[in-house]
Amino acid sequence: HTIHQQGITNLRIYCHDAVEILRDCIADQSIDTVQIFFPDPWHKKKHHKRRLIQPGFVERLKQKIKPGGNIHLATDWENYAEHMLEVLEADAELSNSAGEAVWASNTGRPETKFERRGHRLGHGVWDLVYTFTHNNRRWPDSHRSRSGFGECPALFFLTGSKIATFRSRHADVKTGHNFCPTLATSTRNPAQACVGCRYHGR
After folding, report:
1. Which of 28, 32, 40, 76 is catalytic?
2. Is 32 one of the catalytic residues?
3. Digit-coded pLDDT (tens) for 145-157
4. 43, exposed or middle or buried, with CB in 10 Å at 0-12, 13-18, 19+?
């Protein structure tokens, strides 16, 4: 009701899987700030793989964020906070606004009623704010294909081989101008989008 009363027209609300919304509904390099507050911590160790904040998801976020854009995370689960910090600190294209491996403070994030109750009970809340610094990077010319388009850099980590060798071994997963090792290991459907590489398709 408040949205209608105030005439807000630049707001979209989705009740759906965040990964699919990001993939299907958000244009590349269109977001100034991504805010993910209190995602499900999946506190049992056997469920940690279900946590939203994973390296692959962060790669997808970077594809959607403008150069200089921010990722702001918050959680009240300490183990998840440490996991978030580990994932983001490991990404060379993200810069911690508070300093290396430091929690953010005075972020301007609104405090929820549940959060205030947690503070009264002595529960902690951890914020992280990272800036994306290299959204327009291209793979070096020395690693470009004959077509002039950059190859998926992950292949150098996965195979350690030269592009020509990669092509001959995985020619059946050719997708446009790029070859993606993720496809080579997970599917033989060349129409499937690369699921962990923001360089794919360039």
Report:
1. 40
2. no
3. 433 333 344 333 3
4. exposed
CA–CA distance, 174 with 197 (Å, rounded to integer): 15
CA dist., res. 200 & res. 197, Å (int): 6
* 3-state SS assignment for residue 55: helix
pTM: 0.65
Which residue, among 64, 55, 62, 52, has the nearest Cα to 18 in the 3D structure?
52
Residue 33, strand partner residues: 70
Assign residue 29 a region (left: φ > 0; alpha: ψ between -120 and 50; beta: otherwise).
left
Distance between CA 11 and CA 4 in Å, rounded?
11
C-beta atoms surrounding 22 within 10 Å: 16
